[in-house]
C-alpha cells in the first residue's frame, strides 16, 4: 500500500481532519489535501514526523520500505530485499548495542554500591546509556508489525503470552516490590 493512502487511513483511524494533522505538522491544509490526493509528493522530513503524530507503526514500516531500507543498513543482509529480514537484522544490531550499554551501566552502578553520590559525568553517561538501552524499543515495534503482517501472528496474542510469563516467573520490579 502506498504511503499517502495509508497516511489517510491512519489519520481517519485517529479521528483527525486534514486540518488537524496539518496543524500538527506545521503545514497548510491544502498541502495535506494535495498529498493525500497524490497531486504532490510528501517531503521526506514530513513523512518521518507523521508516524509519531498518528502513532502508527505501519507508517514507520512503510517509510522503511519506501526508502529501500536506507534507514536500516546492515552489513550482513544489505543485498536481501526482504523487509522482514532487514528488520530482524536491525533489531539484532540495536540489541547488541543495547546490551553493551547495559553492561556499561551495570559497571557504573556497581562501582557506586557504597552509596556515594554519582558525579555529574556519571549522571550524564548514565543518561546517554539509558537512551541507548531504549533505542531498540521502536525497532521491536516495527518488527512485530512486520511479523504480524507478513506471517499473520497477531501482536495481541504475544502480549497475552508475555503477561502470563511475567506472572508465572514472578518477575519483580526495581526495589524488590512485587
TrEMBL record:
Entry keyword set: DNA-binding
SUPFAM superfamilies listed in its UniProt record: lambda repressor-like DNA-binding domains
Keyword DNA-binding: yes
Xref: InterPro entries: Cro/C1-type_HTH (IPR001387), Lambda_DNA-bd_dom_sf (IPR010982)
UniProt protein name: Helix-turn-helix transcriptional regulator
CDD domains in alphabetical order: HTH_XRE (cd00093)
Record's keyword annotation contains Signal: no
Start and end residues of each HTH cro/C1-type domain: 7-61
Species this chain originates from: Tepidibacter hydrothermalis
Highest taxon above the source species: Bacteria
Amino acid at each position: 500500500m502506498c504511503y499517502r493512502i495509508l497516511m489517510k487511513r491512519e489519520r481517519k483511524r485517529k479521528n483527525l481532519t486534514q486540518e488537524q494533522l496539518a496543524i500538527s505538522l506545521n503545514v497548510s491544509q491544502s498541502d495535506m489535501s494535495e498529498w493525500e490526493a497524490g497531486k504532490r509528493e510528501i517531503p521526506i522530513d514530513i513523512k518521518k514526523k507523521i508516524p509519531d503524530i498518528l502513532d502508527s507503526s505501519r507508517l514507520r514500516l512503510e517509510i522503511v520500505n519506501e526508502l529501500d531500507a536506507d534507514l536500516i543498513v546492515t552489513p550482513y543482509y544489505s543485498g536481501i530485499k526482504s523487509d522482514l529480514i532487514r528488520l530482524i537484522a536491525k533489531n539484532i544490531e540495536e540489541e547488541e548495542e543495547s546490551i553493551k550499554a547495559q553492561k556499561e551501566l551495570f559497571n557504573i552502578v556497581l562501582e557506586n554500591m557504597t552509596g556515594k553520590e554519582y558525579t555529574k559525568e556519571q549522571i550524564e553517561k548514565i543518561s546517554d546509556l539509558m537512551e541507548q538501552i531504549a533505542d531498540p524499543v521502536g525497532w521491536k515495534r516495527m518488527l512485530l508489525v512486520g511479523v504480524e503482517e507478513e506471517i499473520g501472528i497477531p501482536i495481541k496474542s504475544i502480549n497475552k503470552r508475555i503477561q502470563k510469563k511475567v506472572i508465572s516467573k514472578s518477575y519483580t520490579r526495581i526495589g524488590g516490590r512485587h
